[in-house]
Amino acid sequence: MNVISYRPGPDELSYTFGGRAAVGSVKPGTIVELFTEDCFGGRVRGVGDLPSQVCEFPYLNPVTGPFHVDGAEPGDTLALHFVSIEPARDWAVSTTFPHFGALTATHTTAMLHPPLDEVVWMYEVDRERRTVRYRARRGDFSVEMPLDPMHGTVGVAPAASEARMTITPDAHGGNMDTPELRAGVTVYLGVNVEGALFSIGDGHCRQGHGEVCGTAVEAAMNTVVAVELIKGVATPWPRMEDDGHLMSTGSARPLEDAYRISQHDLVTWTASLTGLDELDAYQLVSQGGEAPVGNVCDTNYTMVAKLPKAYLGAPDPYEFAHTRLRGLGREYLSSR
């Protein structure tokens, strides 16, 4: 088994997809062990550390990478299977921002009322009990919630030599912020440039659908991914697969267009996998599908369209890449 490890220093973090040289190369079939920093670069460590004071824009939402995948070319699909995602610290953080989030004025939603307060919440992370503890800042209320680690940001370099801020989700991936992107999930990303140049970051101990306040339970992560390349198969928008479901994403503004993109991709993907007429696939997805919200706070919003594989017979998406990578991940875990 080919296993490589990479832990970036503070100066080696990336803040864009595209526009940056690879930090290393990996071959398909490789297991990659990564450290990813939290969205604040580890600078917010207490309730007095306001991001506006301890962080520097645009150096937010860092990602680890990019990695060059040997043999990857435009028109191929990169498959990343998340073997494990584990918090790297016993604390995590969340915030409200004056002009960021779904329930406040933003630069694109101008209002006359005062902005929200900038407030920091610290979460205790219990990795053994698999919980995080929320504590109110303006009261004595406290509650434990299940630990459900995920990555908000994963993607490849965009096409046409474009560089995109990591906070922006689009067809290349980016800051989709969907809680569906947890361990056991395979992400499929269309390759736009030679080597694909994938990066991962923005770990969350848990997140509600929509990431409504603009931040999740933000945490540094120790993450393991298995890498595979599907040659000659294009993927128009990021897709995901777990043991029971196929999922398509769409990122845009307004939210209706993000919804339409994700549903359109799932309908056409379903038709291609089953041989169904497109309207028959449309009917099947309409009655059997779900629509989890990714984010409603970033520069683009993200929706997910999700369908149980049981409704599709025995589909073989991407030549059973998820099954193969899941097996590779289990082999890796059993060897540790």
UniProtKB/TrEMBL annotation:
GO terms for molecular function: hydrolase activity, acting on carbon-nitrogen (but not peptide) bonds, in linear amides. Coiled coil: none annotated. It holds the Pfam family FmdA_AmdA. Gene3D superfamilies: Acetamidase/Formamidase-like domains. InterPro entries: FmdA_AmdA (IPR004304). PANTHER family: FORMAMIDASE C869.04-RELATED. This is Acetamidase/formamidase. The lineage of its organism: Bacteria, Bacillati, Actinomycetota, Actinomycetes, Streptosporangiales.
